[in-house]
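Backbone-to-sequence.
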């Protein structure tokens, strides 16, 4: 028996190796009959997700030294994509209401149509007010700890009608999750919604009940809520709505109040996302919450933002990968990002889009299952925002001129959201030169979508290599491409 055991393991290993090799060979040969359609967006051109004539594959067993190549291996598959989209804030809803009917249809098609637009499939909204509201408000009267006065009448003016139009434009379904910026003032240690402060421990249950009431109220209105985040940016004291939780405080609120309360309210299937803040501290927050079994069982995963690099530092993409490696059974998702310090004269700036492309490629390659932009629409001031925190959005409405302005960010995001559909899987991809960034996915319909971004000032010719076959592609300076292989 011992002899059989010793010889059987190598035999099985060689058999598996041969099988994998055969699968790769079979997949590689199937590429020969496929074509590549290249969709491009480039600076100093009129190319905006523009299709070029299809390109075929030819045999290329080994690229020549000095040639630039992008290597893709569809047999190496990783996380499943939940979706890509943006936030449906009060600011977006109020701005939308001021558009003409024709512009409203144009905007909804541009974002949510898979054929005419970029096919957003995920959305975030707020639990009562954020800075991107015209003013602070809650759903209860001051001091009502029993939440007897809870109602969402405020949202019926702009936000709920807007979200319903979005759902319709998205084909009747969108993955919507909601985030609070602050509990009501009476629930906080500083007795105001702004400027940080903390949740009063004695009102933890009341605040946990608030989330369940929000979800049930929205769903009664015909707006399904897929999940919630515990707190937007829990380590930031802001001049707008904000609330501080240390890692331990968020852990304990989740396991002792929010998680059990959601379960008791029949909302246990809703997803709960922790952290919802920058990449810089996400590893520590993951360790504290996910290493506690009682807290971790309620957490679907972790959300993160990109503002750790606001002062000119480098984005901390590695931290995303570290959380993914340490907790492979937890989901990680980008939950907010935007261009800060709005300046109307920079609406055509190319760096706005490139920041999105760089982040989305790196975040997906490091394990993110989804990517959510901040406001989908703002006005010509970068608002409305009740504390003057004016920002960029992919689309701005110049209400004075009566025009919609589509920034480079809209098109860069579109190179992902239009082609990488919910249910897609990340696959292996790499570039042989640092000027090119790349990520790749295979959709459920078996189409392969490779995103390539040229960060350089130079036009680059490269080989798109899959197995022993390659297609020769050219990318313009400061451009992004989606290569659709069918």
């Amino acid at each position: 028996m011992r002899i059989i055991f010793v010889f059987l393991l190598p035999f099985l290993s060689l058999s598996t190796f041969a099988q994998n090799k055969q699968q790769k060979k079979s997949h590689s040969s199937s590429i020969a009959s496929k074509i590549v359609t290249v969709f491009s967006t480039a600076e100093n051109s009129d190319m905006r997700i523009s299709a070029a004539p299809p390109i075929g594959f030819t045999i290329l067993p080994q690229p020549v030294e000095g040639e630039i190549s992008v290597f893709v291996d569809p047999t190496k598959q990783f996380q499943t994509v939940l979706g890509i989209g943006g936030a449906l804030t009060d600011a977006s809803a109020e701005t939308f209401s001021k558009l003409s009917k024709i512009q409203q249809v144009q905007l909804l098609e541009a974002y949510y149509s898979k054929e005419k637009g970029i096919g957003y499939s995920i959305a975030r909204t707020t639990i009562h007010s954020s800075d991107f509201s015209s003013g602070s408000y809650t759903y209860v009267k001051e001091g009502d700890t029993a939440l007897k006065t809870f109602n969402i009448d405020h949202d019926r003016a702009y936000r709920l009608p807007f979200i319903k139009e979005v759902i319709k434009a998205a084909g009747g379904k969108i993955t919507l999750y909601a985030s609070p910026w602050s509990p009501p003032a009476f629930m906080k240690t500083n007795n105001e919604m702004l400027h940080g402060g903390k949740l009063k421990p004695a009102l933890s249950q009341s605040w946990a009940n608030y989330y369940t009431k929000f979800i049930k109220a929205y769903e009664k209105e015909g707006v399904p809520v897929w999940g919630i985040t515990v707190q937007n940016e829990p380590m930031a004291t802001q001049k707008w709505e904000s609330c501080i939780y240390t890692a331990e405080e968020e852990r304990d609120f989740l396991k002792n109040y929010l998680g059990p309360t959601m379960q008791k309210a029949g909302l246990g299937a809703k997803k709960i996302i922790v952290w919802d803040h920058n990449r810089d501290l996400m590893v520590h927050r993951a360790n504290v919450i996910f290493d506690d079994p009682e807290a971790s069982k309620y957490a679907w995963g972790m959300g993160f933002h990109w503002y750790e690099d606001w002062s000119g530092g480098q984005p901390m993409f590695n931290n995303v990968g570290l959380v993914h490696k340490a907790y492979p059974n937890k989901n990680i998702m980008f939950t907010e990002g935007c261009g800060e310090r709005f300046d109307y004269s920079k609406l055509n700036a190319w760096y706005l889009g490139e920041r999105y492309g760089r982040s989305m490629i790196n975040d997906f390659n490091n394990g993110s299952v989804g990517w959510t932009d901040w406001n989908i629409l703002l006005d010509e001031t970068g608002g409305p925002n009740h504390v003057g925190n004016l920002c960029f959005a992919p689309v701005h409405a110049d209400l004075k001129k009566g025009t919609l302005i589509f920034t480079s960010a809209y098109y860069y995001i579109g190179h992902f959201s239009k082609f990488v559909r919910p249910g897609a899987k990340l696959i292996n991809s790499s570039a042989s030169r640092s000027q090119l960034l790349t990520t790749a996915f295979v959709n459920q319909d078996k189409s392969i979508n490779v995103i390539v971004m040229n960060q350089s000032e130079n036009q680059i010719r490269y080989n798109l290599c899959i197995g022993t076959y390659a297609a020769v592609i050219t990318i313009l300076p400061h451009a992004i491409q989606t290569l659709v292989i069918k």
